[in-house]
Amino acid sequence: MLSARLIKALEKKGFLIEFPDYNSNEELILEIIKENNPRINLSLTLFLDDEFDYGKIKSLIDEIKLKELNKIIIISEEIYKKEGIKNNLKDLIKKNKIKSKPDKGEFNEFYNAFRESSIIKLENEQKIIEKQSKLRLNLDLNKNLRVLFSPAKIKIMGKIFNHERLTNTELKYFYRSISNINKAVLSPSLVDYLRVIEISKKFRV
What we know:
The chain is mostly helical. 71% of the residues lie in helices and 0% in strands. The mean pLDDT is 88.
């Protein structure tokens, strides 16, 4: 199996490796708890707000891991209550008579990890939204450019926009066939004129 260090190094270079997803939340929780890693266990608070079969997990782990899981369930319920996150842990705790008394230090450790992960998740979601918005803007830009300019003209303007050097032929073509169109489009009087046309088009016969 590939080491986590190697996977991270490959991803930094843009080489992504596809892994199969988990078939259920129980499978994911089981794998985390079976790692027997205190640092990894902190991540459980990110998954326990989803439905999972506690009885099934209980039957597949030993008493030590079950005790750890029960503690994290108690902590997670407190975190979700504090954060206003909908979940079914209160009923699960009552039904299965789960008893655990994590100390304040343990709660704070899990809560801080939960908040940090939530912030990173939110930032990543925001980056995706910004990327999608930028893509939509680019699509709109390309659509509008195709209305006004030929592919050859669009290519030359793209080179200028990306600070690429033009050949002498491209430079002459820009000043002869593109620059005048750009100046016309940027003219405030033309913008105002076209705006009136668009607003008044409903009165045309």
